[in-house]
Design goal:
The protein has about 300 residues and is an alpha/beta fold. The chain has 10 helices and 8 strands. Strands 1-2-4-3-5-6-7-8 form an 8-stranded mixed beta sheet, sandwiched between helices. Strand 1 (about 25) and strand 2 (about 35-40) form a beta hairpin. Helix 2 packs across helix 3 and helix 4 packs across helix 5 (about 195-210). The radius of gyration is 19 Å and the shape is globular.
Length: about 300
């Protein structure tokens, strides 16, 4: 007579074997599926993307560093891209926990974590919340830390009305709003700018792949989260890269402040470059990233 099998305990995350034909996802302990790309061998570089994009925003960097002999990994944050369009967990603690689950699932060691914009906040919170045992170096590019919102203690930040306007744009006509955002994002609203409609369309497509609820919630996450203590906990070599014509995350209350809070951080300011400089000037950014990682 057959006897019933005991129920299996649900793991904290699950992952298919590398090299299988299935789509690469991990499943977190709340059932969220996090999509990721994992290419190559060698020292791992983990890329965390900005709002409201996906891991595809790192196309230029992924291909470049793959050809340089690195293992390159980029995930879609929950609610973004090909990951689950979550109604909950759209805040920095959970984002950092998802990143920790990914690094554990892939058993990454000696990793370089690179975060752009909101992804820079995700990296900072990951390092502050989970430590640097698996981490060799960190890079914050046009990143939101230490705090974007203007407060009495942070007078250089942006007023809440700016972020209320972003929320209104997402809730009202997200498709049109996302088209409009690409102009200041890449500095295409500046006199004489050479506009790439391909780059604009790529941004729009990534944004529209994600979930509106998660994108709406993420505005609060990237604007009101204070990363000051996370930055102070970082104890690995850190590079802070910021364009001085960043119209999305102005450098004064972001990169300049973060470089002071991270002990021993290296600050590199890019005159005239926009928030989306990884896409508009990949040859500049990639060369500096490579020098830092190898240095």
């Amino acid at each position: 007579m057959l006897t019933p099998m005991a129920p299996r305990r649900r793991p904290l995350f699950s992952i298919p074997p590398r090299g299988t034909a299935t789509m690469p996802y991990i499943t977190t302990n709340d059932g969220t599926q996090i999509y990721y790309k994992d290419w190559g061998q060698g020292q791992p570089i983990v890329f965390s993307h900005g709002w409201p994009l996906s891991g595809d925003d790192w196309d230029n960097q992924m291909l470049y560093f793959l050809h340089q002999g690195f293992r390159v990994i980029a995930h879609d944050r929950r609610g973004h891209g090909r990951s689950t369009q979550t109604a909950t967990g759209n805040e920095m603690d959970t984002y950092s926990d998802d990143l920790a689950a990914l690094t554990a699932a892939l058993d990454l060691q000696d990793a370089v974590h690179v975060g752009h914009s909101t992804g820079g906040g995700e990296v900072a919170r990951y390092l502050g919340r989970h430590g640097t045992k698996r981490v060799a170096k960190a890079v914050l590019i046009g990143a939101v830390p230490p705090l974007m919102l203007k407060t009495a203690a942070n007078p250089g930040g942006l007023p809440i009305e700016v972020f209320d306007g972003i929320r209104a744009g997402v809730a009202g006509n997200r498709a049109e709003f996302y088209r409009d955002v690409t102009l200041p994002f890449y500095g295409y609203n500046r006199p004489g700018a050479r506009i790439s409609e391909g780059i604009r369309n790529h941004w729009w497509l990534q944004g529209m792949m994600g979930g509106i609820k998660a994108h709406y919630d993420c505005v609060k996450a990237f604007s009101e989260t204070d990363f000051t203590e996370d930055l102070r906990k970082i104890d690995v070599p850190t590079l802070v890269m910021h364009g001085d014509d960043d119209q999305i995350v102005p450098i004064g209350a972001a990169g300049l402040m973060s470089a002071k809070l991270v002990k021993g951080a290296t600050l590199k300011v890019y005159p005239g470059l926009p928030h989306g400089m990884c896409a508009t000037h990949p040859e500049v950014i990639n060369a500096d990233l490579l020098a830092f990682i190898k240095g």
